[in-house]
Every structure is written in structure tokens, then in C-alpha cells.
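Field reference: sequence -> structure
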Amino acid sequence: MDWTWFHRWGSPPWFVKNVTPWLKWLLLLAGLMLVVGSCWGLLIAPEEAKQGNSARIIYIHVPAAFISLAGYYTMAIAGAIGLIWRMKIAFWVMRSVAPIGAAMTAIALITGAIWGKPTWGTYWVWDARITSMTILLFLYLGVIALINAYRDVDNGYRAGAILGLVGTINIPIIYKSVDWWYTLHQPATLKLTEDSPIHPDILYPLLWMIASFYLLFAALMLANTCRHILLSESNKRWVRQWYEEGK
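Structure field:
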């Protein structure tokens, strides 16, 4: 198997020079998709039969929850690559994803609380899904704290990566919490192996928003990684040349 692509992505100069030209277009496309999806879901899609307009928060809540989980996997895998192959760029990816994932988890929790008030009569319950998502937020914050807690940056990255890997045990708990325990949170309605019971007029804008959030996540992750690379490698000759070329 040809692993040339793997080593290319591990090269800071190659990464920055090949990623940055696409960033503005990715961010623009993500922004346009979010605007279209928000108008589609919040203004055009019909009301949910039982919950009315309060159910429209799913167009923010569900995509944010998806990204919070996908972001954690990305962070943990990047940390594992950094530990195993000693690739600095993997640690930079891990560091870049952590605040994005934490923000998405916070958005999922806040929007869930807003939805919970009219639906459950309270903003917060110690529901299995909500509790495990709260733990996820603290895992993200713990990784961020560990990375910044050490004077030796490499030690901080290793500590953050280890916590990230240990924390992956929480991800299947989040997924299966509604099946393993009695919970107020509704079971998953989006499954790859089954047809969704959601009406197409509500489902399609939801899928659009999920795709938009994924694209936004990818764009922010790449942009943040490039920023960390340029800050960390600021004394390197290639960085000075890159800035001089205006790229």
C-alpha cells in the first residue's frame, strides 16, 4: 500500500499550502448552506404535529449533537495518531478540534434545555442522554485544560491525547443511553439501517442542516489547524516564505 498521502498530510508546509486555498470556499459554502437550511427548516418546513413550532429547534440541536460526537472521534483518532507515529500535525488537529467540539456540545445541551421546557416542563433533568452529553463537554474541556497545563507542549499534547482516548468509552454510552436506561429523551429517529419515521418535509431540511454542520466543522477544523501550525512553526523558514509570497 502506498502511504505517500499519509506522509504528505503529516508535513506542515504541504498541509498549509494545500489546504489554505480551499478554506475560504469551504467557509463560504458552509455559510450559504446554513442560511438556506435555516430558512428551510425554521421558516418553510411545516410544524411538527404534536410539538408545534418548538420542534423546529431540532434543526440546530440535532446537527450540533452529531458534530459533538463526530468531533470527539476525530479528536481521539488524531491524538492516537500523534501518540503512535509522533506526528505533530495530528496533535495540532486534536488541539484544533477540541474547542469546536466543546462549542457544539454546549450548543446541543443549551438547545436541548430550551426544547425541554415546553416539552418536559423543565429545562434540565438528570436524564441518561443529557448526563452523558454533559460528561462529553467536560471531557472536551479536560483535553483543552491538559494541553495548556504543561510548560512542555509535547507533554501537554500527550496528556490530552490519553484523556481523549480514555473518554471514547463515553461515546457508545451516549448512543445507547436511551436503550439501556429509562429516559425521557426520545430514541434515535435517524438510523442508517432503518427508514426514518420523520415526515420528508421535516426530514430533508434536517439532513441538509446536518450536512451543513459537518461542512462547517471540517472548514473550522482545517482553518484552526493551519493557525496552530503557523503559530508553532513561526520561526521556520518556510513560514516566512509563505507569508512573503502572500499565500
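Note: The two ends are 33 Å apart (CA to CA).
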